[in-house]
Automatic annotation (TrEMBL):
GO BP, one annotated term: cobalamin biosynthetic process
Pfam family, one: Cob_adeno_trans
Record's protein name: Corrinoid adenosyltransferase
Key word Metal-binding present: no
Source taxonomy: Bacteria, Bacillati, Bacillota, Bacilli, Bacillales
Species assigned in the record: Geobacillus sp. (strain Y4.1MC1)
Length: 330
Protein backbone atom coordinates (compact mmCIF):
# COMPACT_ATOMS: atom_id res chain seq x y z
CA UNK A 1 0.00 0.00 0.00
CA UNK A 2 1.39 3.38 -1.04
CA UNK A 3 2.12 6.00 1.62
CA UNK A 4 0.66 8.71 -0.56
CA UNK A 5 -3.00 8.63 -1.65
CA UNK A 6 -3.27 12.04 -3.41
CA UNK A 7 -6.55 12.60 -1.57
CA UNK A 8 -5.08 15.56 0.26
CA UNK A 9 -3.79 17.34 -2.81
CA UNK A 10 -6.64 19.85 -2.63
CA UNK A 11 -5.89 20.86 0.96
CA UNK A 12 -8.35 18.56 2.67
CA UNK A 13 -7.90 15.55 4.95
CA UNK A 14 -10.19 12.78 6.10
CA UNK A 15 -11.50 12.39 9.63
CA UNK A 16 -12.15 9.10 11.37
CA UNK A 17 -15.71 8.44 10.25
CA UNK A 18 -15.30 9.43 6.60
CA UNK A 19 -16.00 13.16 6.44
CA UNK A 20 -13.41 15.54 5.01
CA UNK A 21 -12.11 18.79 6.43
CA UNK A 22 -9.68 21.55 5.46
CA UNK A 23 -6.12 20.93 6.58
CA UNK A 24 -5.89 24.42 8.06
CA UNK A 25 -8.93 23.92 10.31
CA UNK A 26 -8.67 24.28 14.08
CA UNK A 27 -9.57 20.62 14.56
CA UNK A 28 -6.63 19.46 12.42
CA UNK A 29 -4.34 21.94 14.20
CA UNK A 30 -5.29 20.30 17.51
CA UNK A 31 -4.45 16.71 16.66
CA UNK A 32 -1.55 17.78 14.43
CA UNK A 33 0.04 19.56 17.38
CA UNK A 34 -0.34 16.39 19.45
CA UNK A 35 1.58 14.54 16.75
CA UNK A 36 4.29 17.18 16.99
CA UNK A 37 4.47 16.72 20.78
CA UNK A 38 4.64 12.96 20.38
CA UNK A 39 7.63 13.30 18.07
CA UNK A 40 9.44 15.49 20.60
CA UNK A 41 8.72 12.90 23.29
CA UNK A 42 10.16 10.24 21.00
CA UNK A 43 13.44 12.12 20.81
CA UNK A 44 13.54 12.43 24.60
CA UNK A 45 12.69 8.74 24.98
CA UNK A 46 15.61 7.73 22.77
CA UNK A 47 18.05 9.73 24.92
CA UNK A 48 16.87 8.83 28.42
CA UNK A 49 18.44 5.90 30.25
CA UNK A 50 16.27 5.81 33.38
CA UNK A 51 13.81 2.93 32.92
CA UNK A 52 11.10 4.48 35.11
CA UNK A 53 10.99 7.71 33.13
CA UNK A 54 11.15 5.86 29.79
CA UNK A 55 8.16 3.72 30.81
CA UNK A 56 6.13 6.80 31.74
CA UNK A 57 6.98 8.56 28.48
CA UNK A 58 6.01 5.53 26.42
CA UNK A 59 2.62 5.38 28.18
CA UNK A 60 2.10 9.09 27.53
CA UNK A 61 2.90 8.63 23.85
CA UNK A 62 0.25 5.92 23.59
CA UNK A 63 -2.28 8.16 25.37
CA UNK A 64 -1.57 11.00 22.95
CA UNK A 65 -2.63 8.68 20.12
CA UNK A 66 -5.88 8.09 22.01
CA UNK A 67 -6.50 11.82 22.43
CA UNK A 68 -5.52 12.48 18.84
CA UNK A 69 -7.92 9.81 17.55
CA UNK A 70 -10.83 11.36 19.41
CA UNK A 71 -9.99 14.85 18.16
CA UNK A 72 -9.63 13.49 14.62
CA UNK A 73 -13.10 11.89 14.64
CA UNK A 74 -16.38 13.11 13.26
CA UNK A 75 -19.66 12.07 14.87
CA UNK A 76 -19.65 8.68 13.19
CA UNK A 77 -15.96 8.09 14.00
CA UNK A 78 -16.48 8.99 17.65
CA UNK A 79 -18.95 6.14 18.01
CA UNK A 80 -16.34 3.73 16.67
CA UNK A 81 -13.66 4.60 19.20
CA UNK A 82 -12.76 1.71 21.50
CA UNK A 83 -10.65 3.74 23.91
CA UNK A 84 -11.00 7.23 25.36
CA UNK A 85 -9.14 9.29 27.93
CA UNK A 86 -10.84 9.09 31.33
CA UNK A 87 -10.65 10.66 34.75
CA UNK A 88 -8.42 7.77 35.80
CA UNK A 89 -5.82 8.88 33.26
CA UNK A 90 -5.91 12.39 34.73
CA UNK A 91 -5.41 10.96 38.22
CA UNK A 92 -2.43 8.90 37.00
CA UNK A 93 -0.73 12.06 35.78
CA UNK A 94 -1.41 13.74 39.12
CA UNK A 95 0.18 10.77 40.89
CA UNK A 96 3.28 11.13 38.69
CA UNK A 97 3.51 14.84 39.50
CA UNK A 98 3.09 14.22 43.25
CA UNK A 99 5.65 11.39 43.23
CA UNK A 100 8.43 13.43 41.68
CA UNK A 101 7.59 16.60 43.57
CA UNK A 102 8.01 14.64 46.80
CA UNK A 103 11.26 13.10 45.57
CA UNK A 104 12.82 16.26 44.14
CA UNK A 105 11.38 18.86 46.51
CA UNK A 106 9.95 22.29 45.72
CA UNK A 107 11.58 24.76 43.34
CA UNK A 108 12.22 28.38 44.22
CA UNK A 109 13.23 29.81 40.87
CA UNK A 110 12.47 29.49 37.16
CA UNK A 111 14.15 26.54 35.46
CA UNK A 112 16.01 27.33 32.26
CA UNK A 113 15.90 24.32 29.90
CA UNK A 114 19.25 22.97 28.73
CA UNK A 115 20.86 21.08 31.63
CA UNK A 116 20.76 17.83 29.65
CA UNK A 117 19.76 17.10 26.06
CA UNK A 118 16.98 14.72 27.11
CA UNK A 119 15.49 17.13 29.66
CA UNK A 120 15.56 19.87 27.01
CA UNK A 121 13.46 17.73 24.67
CA UNK A 122 11.03 17.03 27.52
CA UNK A 123 10.69 20.79 28.04
CA UNK A 124 10.13 21.18 24.30
CA UNK A 125 7.39 18.55 24.41
CA UNK A 126 5.89 20.35 27.43
CA UNK A 127 5.76 23.64 25.52
CA UNK A 128 4.13 21.94 22.52
CA UNK A 129 1.55 20.34 24.82
CA UNK A 130 0.77 23.78 26.23
CA UNK A 131 0.14 25.01 22.70
CA UNK A 132 -2.05 22.00 21.98
CA UNK A 133 -4.00 22.70 25.17
CA UNK A 134 -4.69 26.28 24.05
CA UNK A 135 -5.88 25.07 20.66
CA UNK A 136 -8.13 22.42 22.20
CA UNK A 137 -9.67 24.94 24.60
CA UNK A 138 -10.37 27.16 21.59
CA UNK A 139 -11.90 24.21 19.73
CA UNK A 140 -14.14 23.44 22.70
CA UNK A 141 -15.89 26.79 22.19
CA UNK A 142 -17.39 25.63 18.91
CA UNK A 143 -17.19 21.83 19.09
CA UNK A 144 -17.95 19.12 21.62
CA UNK A 145 -14.69 18.41 23.47
CA UNK A 146 -14.95 16.32 26.60
CA UNK A 147 -13.77 17.90 29.86
CA UNK A 148 -11.48 14.91 30.54
CA UNK A 149 -9.40 15.76 27.48
CA UNK A 150 -8.88 19.36 28.60
CA UNK A 151 -7.98 18.18 32.11
CA UNK A 152 -5.60 15.55 30.74
CA UNK A 153 -3.77 18.10 28.61
CA UNK A 154 -3.46 20.48 31.53
CA UNK A 155 -1.96 17.82 33.83
CA UNK A 156 0.26 16.45 31.08
CA UNK A 157 2.31 19.63 30.70
CA UNK A 158 2.91 19.66 34.47
CA UNK A 159 3.88 15.98 34.41
CA UNK A 160 6.40 16.60 31.63
CA UNK A 161 7.87 19.48 33.62
CA UNK A 162 8.45 17.13 36.56
CA UNK A 163 9.88 14.42 34.30
CA UNK A 164 12.36 16.95 32.89
CA UNK A 165 13.47 17.77 36.45
CA UNK A 166 13.73 14.06 37.27
CA UNK A 167 15.86 13.43 34.16
CA UNK A 168 18.35 16.09 35.28
CA UNK A 169 18.43 14.61 38.79
CA UNK A 170 19.00 11.04 37.64
CA UNK A 171 21.69 12.17 35.18
CA UNK A 172 23.51 13.89 38.03
CA UNK A 173 23.28 10.79 40.22
CA UNK A 174 24.59 8.57 37.43
CA UNK A 175 27.47 10.97 36.89
CA UNK A 176 28.46 10.68 40.53
CA UNK A 177 28.18 6.88 40.43
CA UNK A 178 30.43 6.73 37.39
CA UNK A 179 33.08 8.75 39.18
CA UNK A 180 32.92 6.48 42.23
CA UNK A 181 33.06 3.33 40.07
CA UNK A 182 36.00 4.73 38.14
CA UNK A 183 37.80 5.36 41.41
CA UNK A 184 37.19 1.77 42.48
CA UNK A 185 38.38 0.43 39.11
CA UNK A 186 41.65 2.24 39.54
CA UNK A 187 42.39 -0.32 42.21
CA UNK A 188 44.45 0.27 45.29
CA UNK A 189 46.16 3.57 45.83
CA UNK A 190 49.88 3.81 46.33
CA UNK A 191 49.19 4.22 50.04
CA UNK A 192 46.87 2.07 52.12
CA UNK A 193 45.00 2.68 55.34
CA UNK A 194 46.12 -0.20 57.53
CA UNK A 195 44.19 -1.85 60.33
CA UNK A 196 47.00 -0.89 62.66
CA UNK A 197 46.51 2.79 61.82
CA UNK A 198 42.74 2.46 62.09
CA UNK A 199 43.11 1.00 65.60
CA UNK A 200 45.34 3.90 66.65
CA UNK A 201 42.76 6.38 65.36
CA UNK A 202 39.94 4.55 67.16
CA UNK A 203 41.82 4.82 70.47
CA UNK A 204 42.29 8.55 69.99
CA UNK A 205 38.61 8.95 69.08
CA UNK A 206 37.51 7.01 72.16
CA UNK A 207 39.84 8.97 74.43
CA UNK A 208 38.60 12.31 73.08
CA UNK A 209 34.95 11.16 73.27
CA UNK A 210 35.40 10.10 76.91
CA UNK A 211 36.97 13.46 77.64
CA UNK A 212 33.92 15.23 76.22
CA UNK A 213 31.53 12.75 77.78
CA UNK A 214 29.77 11.31 74.73
CA UNK A 215 29.86 7.64 73.64
CA UNK A 216 30.47 7.37 69.92
CA UNK A 217 30.87 5.05 66.99
CA UNK A 218 34.09 5.50 65.03
CA UNK A 219 34.56 4.13 61.51
CA UNK A 220 37.56 4.05 59.21
CA UNK A 221 37.15 3.09 55.53
CA UNK A 222 39.64 2.54 52.73
CA UNK A 223 39.89 4.48 49.46
CA UNK A 224 37.03 2.43 47.97
CA UNK A 225 34.70 3.14 50.87
CA UNK A 226 35.03 -0.34 52.39
CA UNK A 227 35.08 -0.53 56.17
CA UNK A 228 38.51 -1.18 57.68
CA UNK A 229 37.37 -0.76 61.28
CA UNK A 230 34.12 0.04 63.08
CA UNK A 231 34.47 0.76 66.80
CA UNK A 232 31.46 1.31 69.07
CA UNK A 233 31.77 2.64 72.60
CA UNK A 234 29.42 1.33 75.24
CA UNK A 235 26.22 3.38 75.33
CA UNK A 236 26.61 4.79 71.81
CA UNK A 237 23.40 5.44 69.91
CA UNK A 238 22.19 2.63 67.67
CA UNK A 239 21.63 5.18 64.90
CA UNK A 240 25.34 5.93 64.98
CA UNK A 241 26.06 2.42 63.68
CA UNK A 242 24.66 3.64 60.35
CA UNK A 243 25.68 7.28 60.50
CA UNK A 244 29.34 6.73 61.35
CA UNK A 245 30.23 4.45 58.40
CA UNK A 246 28.04 6.53 56.08
CA UNK A 247 29.92 9.68 57.07
CA UNK A 248 33.22 7.95 56.29
CA UNK A 249 31.82 6.66 52.98
CA UNK A 250 30.54 10.12 52.01
CA UNK A 251 33.91 11.72 52.73
CA UNK A 252 35.64 9.24 50.41
CA UNK A 253 32.95 9.13 47.71
CA UNK A 254 32.76 12.92 47.35
CA UNK A 255 36.34 13.70 48.42
CA UNK A 256 35.27 16.27 50.97
CA UNK A 257 34.36 16.68 54.62
CA UNK A 258 30.67 16.01 55.20
CA UNK A 259 29.96 19.40 56.80
CA UNK A 260 31.08 21.08 53.57
CA UNK A 261 28.15 19.48 51.71
CA UNK A 262 25.39 21.37 53.52
CA UNK A 263 25.43 24.54 51.37
CA UNK A 264 25.87 22.52 48.17
CA UNK A 265 22.64 20.50 48.54
CA UNK A 266 20.28 23.46 48.83
CA UNK A 267 17.64 23.87 46.07
CA UNK A 268 19.25 25.30 42.97
CA UNK A 269 22.81 24.35 43.97
CA UNK A 270 24.99 21.89 42.06
CA UNK A 271 24.53 18.91 44.40
CA UNK A 272 20.84 19.37 45.21
CA UNK A 273 19.24 15.95 45.72
CA UNK A 274 22.48 14.01 46.17
CA UNK A 275 21.54 13.18 49.76
CA UNK A 276 19.04 10.61 48.48
CA UNK A 277 21.50 8.96 46.10
CA UNK A 278 23.89 6.07 46.69
CA UNK A 279 21.24 4.06 48.54
CA UNK A 280 20.79 6.94 51.01
CA UNK A 281 24.38 6.56 52.26
CA UNK A 282 25.27 10.22 51.69
CA UNK A 283 25.47 12.24 54.96
CA UNK A 284 25.47 16.03 54.74
CA UNK A 285 26.39 17.13 58.26
CA UNK A 286 29.65 17.15 60.18
CA UNK A 287 31.71 14.22 61.41
CA UNK A 288 33.10 12.68 58.23
CA UNK A 289 36.54 13.48 56.78
CA UNK A 290 38.69 12.12 53.95
CA UNK A 291 42.22 10.96 54.78
CA UNK A 292 44.81 12.32 52.33
CA UNK A 293 48.49 11.85 51.63
CA UNK A 294 49.85 14.31 49.07
CA UNK A 295 46.32 15.03 47.78
CA UNK A 296 45.71 11.29 47.35
CA UNK A 297 42.69 10.01 49.26
CA UNK A 298 43.60 6.76 51.02
CA UNK A 299 40.45 6.47 53.13
CA UNK A 300 38.03 8.30 55.36
CA UNK A 301 36.76 8.48 58.92
CA UNK A 302 33.31 8.95 60.39
CA UNK A 303 32.36 9.91 63.94
CA UNK A 304 28.79 9.81 65.26
CA UNK A 305 27.27 9.92 68.71
CA UNK A 306 27.39 13.48 69.98
CA UNK A 307 26.25 16.79 68.56
CA UNK A 308 27.59 17.75 65.15
CA UNK A 309 30.13 20.03 66.82
CA UNK A 310 31.24 17.26 69.21
CA UNK A 311 31.57 14.73 66.40
CA UNK A 312 33.72 17.18 64.44
CA UNK A 313 35.89 17.94 67.47
CA UNK A 314 36.55 14.24 68.03
CA UNK A 315 37.29 13.73 64.35
CA UNK A 316 39.77 16.62 64.41
CA UNK A 317 41.68 14.87 67.20
CA UNK A 318 41.88 11.79 64.99
CA UNK A 319 43.06 13.86 62.02
CA UNK A 320 45.85 15.31 64.16
CA UNK A 321 47.08 11.80 64.92
CA UNK A 322 46.81 10.88 61.24
CA UNK A 323 48.95 13.85 60.25
CA UNK A 324 51.60 12.76 62.75
CA UNK A 325 51.54 9.08 61.75
CA UNK A 326 50.88 9.13 58.00
CA UNK A 327 54.54 8.97 57.12
CA UNK A 328 54.50 5.36 58.29
CA UNK A 329 51.77 4.30 55.86
CA UNK A 330 52.76 2.42 52.74
Amino acid sequence: MAIYTKKGDKGETGLLGGSRISKDSLQVACYGTLDEANAALGVAYSQIENKEIKSIIRDIQKQLFVVGAELASDEKGYSLLKEKISGKDVTTLEDIIDHYEKKLGPIHEFIIPGETTASSHLHLARAIIRRAERLIVNLSKTSNVRLEIIQFMNRLSDALFMLARAEVYYSMVEGIKEKVIEKIRMGKTSHELTLEMALKMAKVAERKAAEIGVPIVFTAVDASGNIVLLHRMKGALLASLDLSPNKAYTAVALKMATHELAPLIQPGRELYGIQVSNQNKIVTFGGGYPLKINDEIIGGIGVSGGSVEEDMEIAQAVLTLFEEERGGLH
